[in-house]
Structure to design on (179 residues):
């Protein structure tokens, strides 16, 4: 079990790093949006690739940041019963949620998205606009990457839940949050 806990901690560190690096895209996205608005309404011009870059950054931010959000309990959940539950009950709920919902949905998403992504790579799909970003295939690649990052974090969540049930570690909610 010690190996699994170390593996879960490594997954946590990885998703934390990915999330912290990805978070900078929010600032970049706001800056680019400001430039787009300035160009359009002050100078009366626009660049399609610049507008599309906002879509790319938005996709990167949310798809790559999903594992980080799950790590820090930021996903939406129905908190009526979970909030006041004992740590063991929370761990059991997390464990059931990972195996009954998260893993099946992510495996299905990966399975369904794979042909879609490979078809896009086969033709190196680009923007419909001539002056747009010619890397739609990279954007579509985020779908399976999202599934893998979230699946890894789900496995980590399950290991931590089992460790709590076995009395080997406290719940994340009882530990102080790192900033």
């Amino acid at each position: 079990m010690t190996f699994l806990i170390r593996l879960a901690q490594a997954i946590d560190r990885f998703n934390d790093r990915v999330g912290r690096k990805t978070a900078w895209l929010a600032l970049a996205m706001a800056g680019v949006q400001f430039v787009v608005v300035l160009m359009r309404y002050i100078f009366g011009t626009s660049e399609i690739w610049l507008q599309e870059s906002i879509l790319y950054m938005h996709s990167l931010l949310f798809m790559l940041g999903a594992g980080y959000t799950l790590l820090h309990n930021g996903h939406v959940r129905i908190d009526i019963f979970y909030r006041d539950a004992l740590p063991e009950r929370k761990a059991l709920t997390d464990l059931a949620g990972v195996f009954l919902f998260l893993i099946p949905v992510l495996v299905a998403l990966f399975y369904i998205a794979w042909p879609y992504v490979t078809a896009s790579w086969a033709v190196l799909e680009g923007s419909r606009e001539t002056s747009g970003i010619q890397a739609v295939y990279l954007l579509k690649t985020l779908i399976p990457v999202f599934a893998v990052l979230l699946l890894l974090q789900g496995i980590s969540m399950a290991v931590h839940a089992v460790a709590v049930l076995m009395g080997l570690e406290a719940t994340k909610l009882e530990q102080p949050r790192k900033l």
About this structure: The radius of gyration is 20 Å. Helices lie at 2-41, 48-64, 66-71, 79-82, 87-122, 136-165.
